[in-house]
Each structure stands twice: as structure tokens, then as C-alpha cells.
Amino acid sequence: MRELEERIIREGIVREGEVLKVDSFLNHKCDVALYDHMGAEWERLFAGKPVDKILTIEASGIGIACVAARHFGNVPVVFARKTESINLDGSQYRTQIHSYTHGRDYHVIVAKRFLTPGEHVLVIDDFLANGCALNGLLEICDAAGVSVTGIGIAIEKGFQPGGKSLRERGYDLQSLAIVEAMDPKTGSIVFREQ
User: Fold this and answer.
1) Fewer CB in a 10 Å sphere around the end CB: N or C, the chain?
2) What is the tally of structural domains in the chain?
3) Any idea which positions bind xanthine (predicted)?
4) Does residue 133 have a pLDDT over 70?
């Protein structure tokens, strides 16, 4: 998606440790118009596929997923929580993920009452690097007996193994911008042709 790539080039900051900082428009300060265009693009990419719910993980995926849901008939958005809460009741699906960005493990939770066996779920998230968070969400989908229609990612780091692994496993993975290389010394970012 050219619009997203242009924003990454214009406002993205490349840091040591393969970090791409895009908090000025994607995952801290939110450009809702851009989110809307991303949702429209995922609607085009997943056209004709059934979507009963969108699943994401807190926190950065929530805004993107909510705006995207409007393009899929205002389907409900369910997000996996990274923290326990006294408001959580009933039984839950649980898994553990490792956050590349935060360098720590999280136990993620989705209440069982929000995923119904047989539903078609579209998974949406802001970043894909090694795929740990997505693999956790896919484990929850498997445990819940829901079908994964596809996976929509805003920015994929194509030089890390997450995307390749998911595609090899047969998932319909649609990333709107795939970064092939980036250099913290020059700030340059190279995208994969799509």
C-alpha cells in the first residue's frame, strides 16, 4: 500500500536492533484516516471471504482492528488481553507470547464466550516480525475451534521469519507494507515489491 509506505519513509525512524519506530501515525498517535484506508485495502484483499469477527492483541492492534471492522460490515472486534483483570470472568483461552518490541513474555487471554466454534475470524495487527504474537493468537483460534479467514498486517519485517513461516503454513497473510531492509545509520528503508 503505497500510502503506508510513504508515511513510513517520511515519518518512520530506524533504530538499532531492527526497530522501526512509527509511533507518530500508527501505534501511539493514531492517524484514523490512514487506518480507514488500511481497512479498505484489507477489505479488497480479503473480498469474498467470510468474516464474523476480527481478532487482535492489545494494545496497538485495537485501533486498527476497530476501524477495519467497519469495512467488514461492522463485525465485532475481540482483543487478546496481556493482563489479568478482576473484570475477567468465566473460562478463558490462554497462551504465552514473546514480545519482540518489549523483550518479554506475556500471558494473553481471550474469554471463551467471545469466540464461538465455527466462526470465521480475521486476525489484524500492526507489526509482524518473528510471528510470536500471531502464533499465540492462532493457538487461541485453534483452541476455540474458529476458522482463520486470513491475517492482515500493517507492517511486516520481511527480513525476519514470521511472514515466511505463516505463508508456508498456508495462511492467507496480507501485509500492507513489507520492509525488506532498513539501516539505522542512514535511516533508509527498502520495501518489497507487491
Assistant:
1) C
2) 1
3) 20, 27, 157
4) yes
